[in-house]
Amino acid sequence: MLKDQSGVLLVNTGTPEAPSKTAIKQYLKQFLSDPRVIDAPRWLWWPLLNLVILPIRSRRLVKSYTSVWMNQGSPLMVYSQGQCCELSKKLDVPVVFGMNYGSPNIKSAVDILIKQGVNRLIVLPLFPQFSCATVAVVWDGIHKVFSRYRSIPSVYFIRDYAQNPTYIAALADSVSYAFKKYGQPDLLIVSFHGIPQRFVNEGDDYPQRCYATFQLLIEALGMTLDTAMLTFQSRFGYEPWLMPYTQNTLKTLPDKGIKRVHIISPGFASDCLETLEEMNIQNREVFLRAGGTHFEYIPALNVDEAHINMMKDLVTPFC
């Protein structure tokens, strides 16, 4: 009888291999070529992407990536590898990391697990709130990998964990720690990555999942809508995205007497460009220039033990 061997695949969006124009361009091309992310007609999108967006954006992002790059490499990669290592210790089963875009990709990660005899594959996309632009990309990637296999393992796919009690408790603890260390702010901003409003109109339940996390978090903290606010960051392009926009909100707060803010981005399992550079550098500058006096970014859960314990709780029932 074949003995079950479980293995866990953690998946995140991706990162360039280096803070260089070439590496960033290669990463962006793969990312922005995915129809789950940009669903414009190919005949229109491809010339714009290759002739305008990639040359300009990859050059501009060199400084941004350089400003957050760690000695060990990309923050997202460093934290993700740490998560794999710590989770493996708690589970005593193979745990590997793959990315929707970049290297290691989903295929290479799955191949590693299969070669280790894994026949029960637990897939944990590190996106707490489901969206077609993130979690569904992982689903597509898994399907594509196994479409070429003669034999496939049992696959257990975790759609999201927006309301997971351990996740909410870990977020609440990180916020409470920041309040204790830096003082109570006038407002806690809970900022999620945005998506086009059109995706929601077409059926993506992402905003409901974000609101569920937000509501449970402020309840755990004993806060109300007077002291906490949900916003959306990282807008790309010109069509309407989920609102209110984080950066626009920050510009208006000082004039309303809100001079001290703390911001947490609970949709990111690992700190990355969108949190360390966009949020903690760009948005900090926006708020202070507008008249704010205190801006505190609360880090992602990264390799905190509470975060690893949450991952363990999520995958253990399937191991």
What does the model show?
The protein is α/β, with parallel strands linked by helices and 319 residues long. The protein folds into two domains: 6-161 and 306-318, Rossmann fold (3-Layer(aba) Sandwich), CATH 3.40.50.1400; 165-298, Rossmann fold. 48% of the residues lie in helices and 15% in strands. It has eleven helices and eight strands. The protein has helices at residues 21-32, 42-68, 75-91, 106-115, 135-146, 165-182, 197-201, 206-221, 246-252, 273-289, 305-315, and strands at residues 6-14, 95-101, 120-125, 154-157, 187-193, 228-233, 260-264, 294-298. The strands form two sheets. It has a four-stranded parallel β-sheet with strand order 2-1-3-4, with helices on both faces. Helix 10 (273-289) links the parallel strand 7 and strand 8 (294-298). Helix 1 (21-32) packs across helix 2. It is globular, with a radius of gyration of 20 Å. Belongs to the ferrochelatase family. It catalyses: heme b + 2 H(+) = protoporphyrin IX + Fe(2+); Fe-coproporphyrin III + 2 H(+) = coproporphyrin III + Fe(2+). Pathway: Porphyrin-containing compound metabolism; protoheme biosynthesis; protoheme from protoporphyrin-IX: step 1/1.
